[in-house]
Amino acid sequence: xxxxxxxxxxxxxxxxxxxxxxxxxxxxxxxxxxxxxxxxxxxxxxxxxxxxxxxxxxxxxxxxxxxxxxxxxxxxxxxxxxxxxxxxxxxxxxxxxxxxxxxxxxxxxxxxxxxxxxxxxxxxxxxxxxxxxxxxxxxxxxxxxxxxxxxxxxxxxxxxxxxxxxxxxxxxxxxxxxxxxxxxxxxxxxxxxxxxxxxxxxxxxxxxxxxxxxxxxxxxxxxxxxxxxxxxxxxxxxxxxxxxxxxxxxxxxxxxxxxxxxxxxxxxxxxxxxxxxxxxxxxxxxxxxxxxxxxxxxxxxxxxxxxxxxxxxxxxxxxxxxxxxxxxxxxxxxxxxxxxxxxxxxxxxxxxxxxxxxxxxxxxxxxxxxxxxxxxxxxxxxxxxxxxxxxxxxxxxxxxxxxxxxxxxxxxxxxxxxxxxxxxxxxxxxxxxxxxxxxxxxxxxxxxxxxxxxxxxxxxxxxxxxxxxxxxxxxxxxxxxxxxxxxxxxxxxxxxxxxxxxxxxxxxxxxxxxxxxxxxxxxxxxxxxxxxxxxxxxxxxxxxxxxxxxxxxxxxxxxxxxxxxxxxxxxxxxxxxxxxxxxxxxxxxxxxxxxxxxxxxxxxxxxxxxxxxxxxxxxxxxxxxxxxxxxxxxxxxxxxxxxxxxxxxxxxxxxxxxxxxxxxxxxxxxxxxxxxxxxxxxxxxxxxxxxxxxxxx
Length: 697
Prior knowledge:
Elements: H1 2-9, H2 14-26, H3 32-45, H4 50-61, H5 67-84, H6 90-99, H7 109-126, H8 134-141, H9 147-164, H10 170-182, H11 189-205, H12 214-222, H13 230-246, H14 248-251, H15 255-266, H16 271-284, H17 288-295, H18 299-309, H19 314-320, H20 377-392, H21 397-408, H22 413-425, H23 431-434, H24 438-448, H25 454-467, H26 477-491, H27 496-513, H28 521-534, H29 537-554, H30 561-577, H31 585-599, H32 607-642, H33 647-655, H34 660-680, H35 685-695
Helix pairs in contact: 1-6, 4-5, 4-6, 5-7, 7-9, 9-11, 10-11, 11-13, 13-16, 15-16, 16-20, 18-20, 21-22, 22-25, 24-25, 24-26, 25-27, 26-27, 27-29, 28-30, 29-31, 30-31, 32-35
């Protein structure tokens, strides 16, 4: 009771409040000097628990202040909660839990949304067990006569469901679902969209939670079919896809009508809605019997829609810089370079995806957008075509082949490119049916390797990799040579995107061809050596993969002295100049391992330098991990002693918690204790003792 009185009675110091407001105002100043001063002051204030009271006060109880200033106060509070909640005293916790609701019904949509973010951030730490008043307070606001109260509460609930729906108990989920389903029929589109989003988030995390409410849910859901609001339509498509995955029996009688609706929505002018609708086809293909029964009559209409969705738009091309032909000399940005490792055939690795992934998420790699990791309509449509081809098999070619002939012959390069992508997407599901057409198709794809458009050349590389087994058949020696020559030329393309696609495709070709590559080893290695000179950082990682795959594929035939020396020259040069912190070193280690296994005793001249560097690398990283662990422990103790951590302490913690300890434990597990003990005997005694003390290794 005393704590509640404290929350209700607390008032800020006028002087302190004025200083906080001035600080918030100055934070929006354009000059860097003022910004640095403000940041320094904020870092200092964040070490004082009382600062949180002032932030929530400015956000919720000063409606006369400018909206951006109040929202900034809320953003700062959210960051304080996220980074320092465990260090704030209990009285501040309770204060924030109560006072954060002050502005949930504010006139400003921005402030209401900010309050919802703060509530969700606290909920992520506390859950409902430590915040029992949370749900009752939000649900009570649904009875308000004030629209802003209802939207603010529903917005907060939606964010909580989206972030952490799994944290609600079954009883709590039921309390949330009942009013949310009723909001589907609200006169306000914003409330309909928020409510449907919240229910979808619950179904995603607790699919059985909807079971007790399925009949009213479906009745209210189907009433949204003609809803004019874009967000409601997007969430409706998402809901139908989720139901397909977890409650198909309930919607089975309506599946033909739902499929027609989703076909319409896959063509929606809103790309977000079209993407949600396109996900439906991916989910449907998981249940092949129902998929065949419902979708077979729809295929003549569905396939043209999917192929149209697979075309690059003008915005896609501009964002990807797909119209730039010559960029081989442009250095990569740090953010463009993703970690990549060669997977040897002896480890079960397989290259399946269009841009050289390991096949683990091939649906997400079906479109050749090497510079984009974002799931989009093109990728989803290509993945849908892939799974539908697998579900229906060769019979679906009756509908597909006429469309593909038309697209491949189009004078519009974007249409032609989508056709080449589609040919690659159906390779696995329709291989038998496509085989009679390969004598015509493969030469077309090889010719497309020389297309004037970058994106056509790159997609041709990927699609060829899906059918390259054809070149290994008896009587196709000329095709083999043409394919190999064409891909080697594209490895040295002047466009980085094409280089990447060609390198990945060639690695697949190497795996398929095996020892058939041996007569061409000199040409292949000469191309790789030239690529080492030309490639920027990102494509070098892919080149290592191609080199390692070659070694796995031809084994000891790589030991031909002329070929071995030619290949090892750039490899050993890289080995000597890369630092231990260079991300390029890891794929080089994998590549070197494959080369060593292939060369066997012919690798001996390089063994001393390689072994010495490996030992140095491991020792340096183990030392780094041990020291980081010790420093992290010291910092944690300092923060516990000081109460509230400083910004510099938090920043230091983020920097010194490296992945090396996980790598060490994984390494220890994989090689076994006996080999590990032999291995660590080569380290100095102090390092061995610290390894044991810090990590138990």
